[in-house]
Specification:
Radius of gyration: 17 Å
Mean pLDDT: 80
Number of strands: 9
Number of helices: 1
Distance between the termini: 38 Å
Strand content: 35-45%
Order of helices and strands: HEEEEEEEEE
Length: 99
């Protein structure tokens, strides 16, 4: 019984985090063209540029500027944020690291 309670609690805590990373507001209009950004000099060679992107809030697109972030240790590649077209509209997919 204790194991079942622990699994239930784990599911309640982990499920919203997983859903927040892949789902979002559905927008009926496509995002505007990306803003051309000039990358500043990195703080150190171990930093990676994360490009800017649009984020929809209340059906309105807002540009979020790019920034530098410390690179992960194990040769991972940054997959940028993007909007994916679905039958209901455009859905935001958050950027993430991939091997």
């Amino acid at each position: 019984m204790k194991t079942l309670n622990k699994l239930f609690l784990l599911g309640v805590l982990v499920l919203p985090i997983g859903l927040a990373s892949c789902s979002g507001e559905i927008v009926t209009t496509p995002p505007p063209a990306a803003v051309v950004e000039t990358m500043p000099t990195p703080p150190s060679p171990s930093y990676v540029w994360i490009p800017g992107h649009y984020v929809a809030r209340g059906g309105v697109y807002t540009w979020r500027n790019g920034y530098y972030r410390p690179a992960p240790r194990y040769r991972k590649v940054w997959v940028p944020s993007r909007y994916v077209q679905t039958p209901r509209g455009y859905m935001y997919r958050k950027g993430h690291w991939r091997r």
